[in-house]
Specification:
It comes from Klebsormidium nitens (Green alga). Keywords: Glycosidase, Hydrolase, Membrane, Signal, Transmembrane, Transmembrane helix. This is beta-glucosidase. The chain contains 21 helices and 17 strands. Helix 5 crosses helix 17, helix 9 packs across helix 18 and helix 15 crosses helix 16. The strands form 6 sheets. Strands 15-14-16-17 form a 4-stranded parallel sheet, with helices on both faces. By secondary structure, the chain is of the alpha/beta class. The protein is globular, with a radius of gyration of 26 Å. The protein folds into 2 domains: 390 residues, Glycoside hydrolase, family 3, N-terminal domain (TIM Barrel); 139 residues, Rossmann fold (3-Layer(aba) Sandwich), CATH 3.40.50.
């Protein structure tokens, strides 16, 4: 998803018993013990997440049995809670409780849809950016908006602090509850490696790093931690995970992919969905996940972002579809189509893949949300025709970018229905899917921020550290070379591990003391930035803290002059932070001063080269 202009049958999942974890922090309350387990079984795919899932499933079977014994009573209860089918409010308590509808979303969908005007239905399908609507929430009320989002770098005007996020989202939510039917809006954000837009939140490795861990249990725990931090700020929906299978490293979004191995992407994507969504039946500390970008976004020709992927149906199903089959099995609540095309057909207008394959063949019951301004990339001649094609292809909620005006999109879609370009049935299907997801994520019961969770924001750095530790890949451990004049003779000792005692270490390279480079794109802003952007430990700081008092550390960023004498060198090189098409790179070469620094330091002493890259 691009930035804001300002910055520029449903099974349930798993939940946590009081016996399993602390009531507030869930699984992560015993983070130390869990990390020890992860170290003992680093490649295990039968994860703790899945064990919790199975336990929760047993509970759900019991609930289902009760529901089957007394279906008539439950239906009557839902009917009464919703006001007997009249135009009364959906909400009957201050907590907006419609628990009678929770296990029977079909009745909720039917009753609400039959009671909604066309304007209210179209409003539910709109997802504008927060900086394009009135901050007091009046647009949410007046246009019956189904959701609001923050694009990359779009933060509350009052400040980028967790409590300010909760205040902002609650303002929009109060506005949604002023509408006739009081249907809560759903707020979305790109929490793709932690709650990465919020200052002070825990930042986890990007998916390419998590893929290197090959550890589904760890990824599930990261999903759980992310859900806690996101929901604390009042946000119940994240545009994650990216389950792209990156087939060409020149693609600028490769770091958002777990792997080029379809099976690994499938396993880790499923684990993150479980961690984010849980069972969605407990307190408001889980979030709706979004599997993206459907389909074959990582297979475009020459790795061009938003390009065209070409292949046979067999290729599509073998390489790119399995992560979505798994996501549907895990009950993912939303899926985002790709900007890219498949054999020349833009995905946002590909009815065969969005509706026939995903919704009908795979049985996806959630909703499809378009990517940032993606509908305006379709080839039709007018905005209205582009909108009709996308909705008819299967898109349920329209995420607006910089070009679209909310009022224009609403006007065009209403006119399209009245003019016969879009059927009433297609609108009703979209709205039912959106409402179903809102019920599942608990918005009708817990509309506002769970502020008891605010203390959780930024508390999962030990888990992030473990993820970094498991993500490191050793490419080569060469031999030390003893230098006599200009000649070198190979020694018998490997460079790694480095000694902590009695050693002088030279640290060099522009990525050695730069937390922004370590975090990469999608950190506070869409593109990310170099420098001291977020709290954290740079590699230089870590080296200094790791050596003993008998050792010393010298730092020379660019080594412009004579190489400082030292026993060993550590050169940290990498890329400038980037996101999406800004990262497309046909050469895949180190740039700037990096190559020269590597040559100088490694030509003068035994050295370790650390790559901080996304490609």
């Amino acid at each position: 998803m691009a930035p804001s202009k300002e910055a520029e049958t449903w099974d349930e999942g798993w939940d946590l018993d009081d016996d399993d974890a602390n009531e507030e922090a869930g699984l992560l309350a015993s983070e130390e013990e869990a990390i020890q387990q992860l170290r003992a079984e680093p490649i295990q795919v039968t994860s703790l997440v899945q064990q919790q899932y199975r336990k929760e499933m047993e509970k759900k079977r019991t609930k289902l049995l009760v529901a089957l014994i007394v279906p008539v009573l439950l239906i009557v209860l839902v009917w009464n809670l919703l006001g007997g089918g009249t135009s009364s409010n959906l909400h009957k308590t201050a907590q907006n409780c419609v628990t009678g509808a929770y296990d029977l979303p079909y009745e909720l969908e039917m009753m609400v849809c039959s009671d909604m005007s066309l304007e209210e239905k179209v409003g539910q399908m709109m997802l504008p950016a927060r900086n394009w609507i009135n901050p007091n929430g009046s647009d949410v009320t007046n246009y019956f908006l189904g959701g609001v989002l923050s694009g990359g770098g779009s933060v509350p005007s009052e400040g980028n602090e967790p409590s300010k996020w909760a205040d902002m989202v609650d303002t929009f939510q109060r506005a949604s509850l002023k509408t006739r039917l009081r249907i809560p809006m759903i707020y979305g954000i790109d929490a793709i490696h932690g709650h990465n837009t919020v200052y002070g939140a825990t930042i986890f490795p990007h998916n390419v790093g998590l893929g290197a861990t090959r550890n589904a249990s760890l990824v599930g725990m990261i999903g759980r931690a992310t859900a806690l931090e996101v929901r604390a700020t009042g946000i119940p929906w994240t545009f994650a995970p990216c389950v792209a299978v990156c087939r060409d490293p020149r693609w600028g979004r490769c770091y958002e992919s777990y792997s080029d191995d379809t099976a690994l992407v499938t396993a880790l994507g499923g684990a993150l969905i479980d961690g984010l969504q849980g069972s969605l039946s407990g307190p408001a500390d889980f979030v709706a996940a979004t599997a993206k970008h459907f389909l074959a976004d990582g297979g475009t020709t020459k790795g061009k972002d938003e390009g065209d992927a070409k292949g046979s149906d067999a290729d599509l199903r073998r390489l790119f579809l399995p992560p979505y089959i798994e996501a549907v099995k895990r009950n993912v609540l939303s899926i985002m189509p790709s900007y890219s095309s498949w054999n020349g057909i833009k995905m946002h207008a590909n009815k065969h893949l969005l509706t026939d394959l995903l919704k009908k063949e795979l049985g996806f019951k959630g909703f499809l949300v378009s990517d940032w301004g993606a509908i305006n990339q379709l080839p039709q001649s007018t905005d209205a025709l582009r909108l009709y094609d996308s909705i008819n292809a299967g898109v349920d909620m329209v995420m607006m970018g910089d070009r679209e005006r909310l009022q224009d999109v609403i006007r065009d879609l209403i006119a399209g229905v009245k003019g016969g370009h879009v059927s009433d049935a297609r609108i009703d299907d979209a709205v039912k899917r959106i409402l179903r997801a809102k019920v599942k994520v608990g918005l009708f019961e817990h509309a506002f921020a769970n502020r008891t969770l605010l203390s959780q924001v930024g508390t999962h750095r030990q888990l992030a550290r473990e993820a970094v530790r498991q993500s490191v890949v050793l490419l080569k451990n060469g031999m030390r070379t003893e230098r006599n004049g200009t000649n070198g003779t190979a020694g018998s000792e490997r460079v790694l591990p480095l000694r902590k005692d009695g050693v002088k270490t030279l640290v060099a390279g522009r990525s050695a003391d730069d937390i922004g480079r370590q975090c990469g794109g999608w950190t506070l802003t869409w593109q990310g930035a170099s420098g001291n952007t977020v709290p954290g430990t740079t590699i230089l700081q870590a080296v200094k803290s790791a050596v003993s008092n008998s050792s010393s550390v010298v730092y020379d960023k660019d080594v412009n002059g004579t190489v400082p004498p030292a026993d060993v060198g550590i050169v940290v090189v990498g890329e400038n932070p980037y996101a999406e098409y800004y990262g497309d790179d046909p050469k895949l070469e180190l740039n700037g001063t990096d190559p020269a620094v590597v040559r100088k330091v490694c030509g003068a002493m035994p050295c370790v080269v650390v790559l901080v890259t996304g490609e």
